[in-house]
Design brief:
Blueprint: E1 3-5, E2 11-16, H1 23-37, E3 41-46, H2 52-59, E4 63-66, H3 76-87, E5 92-96, H4 98-111, E6 115-119, H5 128-137, E7 143-146, H6 149-159, E8 166-168, H7 184-190, E9 198-203, H8 213-223, E10 229-234, H9 240-250, E11 254-258, H10 263-268, E12 272-275, H11 284-291, E13 296-299, H12 304-307, E14 314-317, H13 322-333, H14 336-353, H15 356-368, E15 374-376
Parallel strand pairs: 2-3, 2-5, 3-4, 5-6, 6-7, 7-8, 9-10, 9-12, 10-11, 12-13, 13-14
Antiparallel strand pairs: 1-15
Helix pairs in contact: 1-2, 1-15, 8-9, 8-13
Length: 380
């Protein structure tokens, strides 16, 4: 039998790896202020250093904490994390990403703190030991919330976590934040791009092979033999240098912008948005593109088919197939009415099905429906 922790939830601690501009961190940046507006005291703790997300959160009056971890395997942060929780225990912890939610489960069990594990991706990289640890510690989470049905299925079928521990809460965004007016020609000139050429773009971490940027470059190489357009790649990552060299060698008209904080404006200068990933959870950048009214071409992986309706809000292609990707982008570039229709339908779909308010309400219901009966099991 588990212990019953009777507690009203008022103080919420979000925990993540770092304050970078990744999809998980951007979701915290959206969710935390909404919960604060609903009357909760909200804090955010990161294992690593400060970054753009922490600056934005502090401006909203949310306390941000850093454990100043160095590198991938800085085990000193576990002791710092334990001491922080011991000194400033929250009512509930929401831990994002594997490297954070595994220690959170164990420390939560030791200290009697209920925690929610937020799983953001189809973690194909997990080895047998990592999957075993995920299964072993799963009962120590009050709930495991997956950002898409594909992630939930992965946890059940590939990791072996029982269905009773998992809840699917789809990512959501505020569509109004992406309905902005931008002086397109001026913005393009400021970026060093030509105003009279189509712009095919993506917003992604440059991590291969996961993000499949190689296939986007291959598709662009094929398409540039038939059409004149510009490729705009927004984002940074460990493979940025390699991908730039690849684009240069192929002779592709590609601009790499690196990390940017003006993503809503950049989306407004694109004609078609592409995600060529080999695996995903439910990318925030896809929701942002559709909220901006962009037609999209995405691969049939993770939660992307849960967002995109093939032939209605965009096109879905098989991963790793540059020729198919090229043909679908070409079809959109040649058909202005199709781009307009897909963009309009995509915006309406995101506004209705993937709203930030809906996401936050479903997260809140995890404890509102269960207040005064949190169950913390004994270690299995």
């Amino acid at each position: 039998m588990g212990r019953v922790l009777k507690k009203h939830v008022n103080d919420i601690l979000f925990v993540t790896v770092g304050y970078t501009l990744g999809g998980s961190e951007r979701m915290i940046q959206r969710i935390a202020p909404c919960l604060k507006d609903r009357g909760y005291n909200v804090r955010v703790l990161a294992f690593k250093e400060w970054g753009p997300i922490s600056e934005g959160l502090r401006e909203m009056g949310i306390e941000c904490i850093s454990l100043f971890g160095q590198g991938r395997f800085d085990y000193r942060i576990l002791w710092r994390y334990f001491l922080y929780l011991l000194r400033f225990p929250p009512d509930i912890i929401i831990a994002f990403l594997y490297r954070v939610y595994i220690p959170t489960r164990v420390l939560g069990w030791i200290l009697g703190l209920p925690n929610i594990s937020s799983v953001r991706d189809v973690e194909v990289w997990m080895n047998p030991l990592e999957r075993f640890l995920d299964r072993l510690t799963a009962p120590l989470s009050f709930a495991i919330y997956a950002c898409s049905r594909a992630v939930s299925l992965f946890l059940k079928e590939k990791v072996g976590i029982p269905d009773k521990y998992i809840v699917t809460i789809l990512n959501g965004i505020d569509t109004d934040a992406y309905q902005i007016k931008v002086a397109r020609d001026k913005k393009l000139r400021n970026l060093g791009l030509e105003v009279d050429k189509f712009v095919v773009g993506t917003v992604s971490r440059l991590h291969e092979p996961k993000k499949g940027i190689k296939y986007l470059l291959d598709a662009s190489h094929l398409l540039q033999k038939e059409m004149d357009f510009q490729l705009l790649i927004v984002g940074e990552g460990r493979d940025e240098k390699q991908l730039k060299e690849m684009a240069k060698k192929m002779g592709i008209n590609a601009t790499f912008l690196g990390k940017r904080e003006d993503v809503p404006e950049l989306l407004q200068v694109m004609d078609v948005f592409v995600l060529s990933s080999l695996y995903e959870g439910l990318p925030v950048s896809l929701l942002e593109a559709m909220a901006s009214g962009l037609p999209v071409v995405v691969t049939n992986v993770g939660g992307m088919p849960e967002v995109v309706v093939d032939g209605k809000t965009g096109f879905i292609v098989q991963p790793g197939r540059a020729e198919e990707l090229s043909e679908r982008v070409k079809e959109l570039l040649l058909n202005k009415e199709l781009r307009r229709r897909f963009g309009s339908e995509g915006f309406l779909r995101v506004k209705k099905e993937f709203s930030l308010d809906k996401t936050v309400s479903e997260i809140e219901q995890l404890w509102r429906n269960s207040e005064s009966r949190f169950i913390l099991p004994h270690f299995p």
